[in-house]
Design a protein that fits this description.
Elements: H1 14-34, E1 46-47, E2 58-62, E3 68-70, E4 73-75, H2 77-85, E5 94-99, H3 105-117, E6 122-125, E7 128-129
Parallel strand pairs: 1-7, 2-5, 5-6
Antiparallel strand pairs: 2-3, 3-4
Length: about 130
């Protein structure tokens, strides 16, 4: 009688692999959503010698009206200096200064001076790679 015969148990791993791939894709998508993508839209100036910098710890955006943005905050020069002074070890802090292509150079220099008053010595300027190079 075949009805009462014991059969070997068989573990199907194909559905388990499908579930693991689904979980992997799910966690990748969630992780990509966790990367902060806030900022101020600006048209960066172009440079044929622009290089990729290490990811900055602080990005300071200056619009053409001279308003300073750090993340979602709008600051003036004194507030920016205080904010950077309160960071841990400002002398090793990496700051990238991003200005619109129509932002006057004098505004960028004032913001750079505010960063230097806080003790920041690593200041980079954001630029886009020129399309012709």
């Amino acid at each position: 009688m075949r009805y009462f015969e014991t059969r070997k148990a068989r573990i199907e791993i194909i559905p388990m692999i499908d579930i693991m791939f689904f979980l992997l894709v799910f966690f990748i998508m969630v992780t990509l959503r966790m990367i902060p993508a806030d900022g101020i839209a600006s048209r960066l100036p172009t440079s044929s010698t622009a290089k990729t910098l290490a990811p900055p710890q602080v990005t300071v955006v200056v619009d053409r009206a001279g308003v300073i943005h750090v993340g979602a905050l709008q600051l003036d020069e004194q507030q920016l200096t205080r904010l950077l002074e309160n960071k841990q070890d400002p002398s090793h802090l990496q700051v990238v200064l991003a200005g619109d292509r129509h932002t006057p150079l004098q505004l960028l220099m004032r913001v750079m001076d505010a960063c230097r008053r806080a003790g920041v010595t690593r200041i980079g300027l954001a630029a886009q790679q020129a399309s012709g190079s």
